[in-house]
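Journal club prep, shared notes

We agreed each person brings one worked example of a sequence with its structure written out as tokens. Mine is Sugar ABC transporter ATP-binding protein. I'm keeping it raw so we can talk through how to read the token line rather than staring at a rendered picture. Sequence first:
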Amino acid sequence: MSAEPALDARGIVKRFGPTLALDSVALTVRPGESHALVGRNGAGKSTLVGVVTGLHRPDAGTVAFAGAPAPAFGDRAGWRSKVACVYQRSMVVPELTVAENLFLNRFERGPIRWGRLRRRAAELLAEYGVNVDPGLRARELTVEQRQFVEIARALSFGARLIVLDEPTAQLDARGIQRLFGKLRELQAQGVAFLFISHHLQEVYELCTAVTVYRDARHVLTAPVAELAKDDLVAAMTGEAGGTSWRPGARARRASGAAPVLTAEGLALDGEFEPLDLAVRPGEVLGLAGAAASGATALGETLAGMRRASAGRIAVRGRPVRPGSVPHALDAGIGYIPEDRHRQGLVPLRSVAENATLTVTDQLGPWGTVLPSRTREFARSMIASLDIKTRGPEQSVSGLSGGNQQKVVVARALARRPVALVAVRPTAGVDVKSKEALLAVVRRVADQGSAAVIVSDELDDLRVCDRVLALFHGRVVAEYDSGWTDRELVAAMEGVGERP
Ligand SMILES: Nc1ncnc2c1ncn2[C@@H]1O[C@H](COP(=O)(O)OP(=O)(O)OP(=O)(O)O)[C@@H](O)[C@H]1O
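Then the structure, token by token:
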């Protein structure tokens, strides 16, 4: 094993127009190390990943792998033999088989021998202990299997450094444990990982070293074991004190008041079985469940994204037409989708325009849009959600991922929804912004609206007054505040007792 660092980046500067995204930063990852790169939304993490994977050309600085200078910019094959990034959004081609994906871009000359290709794919997967049928189409794989295939593919190109960008975002607790197990095995063989995550508990569980960036600068690098969590958060935010915030449900819901949002006998074939819901004014209801629990499908059905196969949804007693987002909006339902594809943002439009897409009819008389009011609303959202932008006029495509998610939240709040449905609203959002965002959801309820949060993140569920746990499309447990992490996790995994 080489004693040279697997990755040594020094003095990296990167500008996007007037934005200085990286200000002479460094990052060193040793062989066999699992190195976390953390920082608030917009700190420069994705930009650094772009530079060390050969996607962004830095304005200054050097990158070296195992002591050798990085390949020339544009030499894709050269970069691929050094480093690979496993993104949330997969790079594999969905319609091709696993075997084809593994050997993409490197078919030998002459006719392709399919039998041999499949055999070699099976050997390769076995070599890295990945248990996936090479004949399956990539679209048939679970998120977890796809990540394993991508890791095996990267290693087969010779890469000994793998970048994982929020790899656990769509995995359930067991999937995360299997992923971490695999990463530890590979680490023992000398493979190094750079791990980008907003889940600090995962950093403590998996990583040996951590680097913090703040506002485009390198703040510290330390062994994880020597850095207390409060100190890590202080380094990220630049404020002493860490996160003392614990939302704590206030249980201010008026139990006698008529419910704002109701569902009766609501069902979606293959997703969830008939269920009833009633969310009262001032109440935040949590729908807790892992990926395949049906919780997300339920949230999407409430928001009009999917049409229920049975049952009714009503807002303040008035039925809402099923499967129609415009009708849900008109009925007063606000929707915060999970960030996955930054659903619905118009990339080239400004922050202000995106944040007010649903309210343009309310910003000026007789259907006119007054730019001053749009900007005013956007400014208040930028402040209350702590959106890192040069200003309301900046186009959303120039924002970091977490900040784009906050614009999605702003847009849902713009209409002052009477019922807010949020699906994993804090995905991709940094620790500090998470507090701000959940506090905003709480405030919406405190002002008399109903709110529903669909999530398997315990921090998201802690703001809820009541939590329903779903497993395999059924409500398996219901909790008022006061649940323990352990019992809720067990219920989401289908091993809890019905209380
Ligand atoms: N294509 C781009 N055009 C203009 N500015 C950009 C572009 N990409 C990134 N930026 C800016 O560079 C800075 C760093 O963004 P980056 O995406 O690296 O942050 P990040 O730490 O990955 O954030 P997050 O946690 O939200 O993903 C931000 O101010 C962002 O607005």
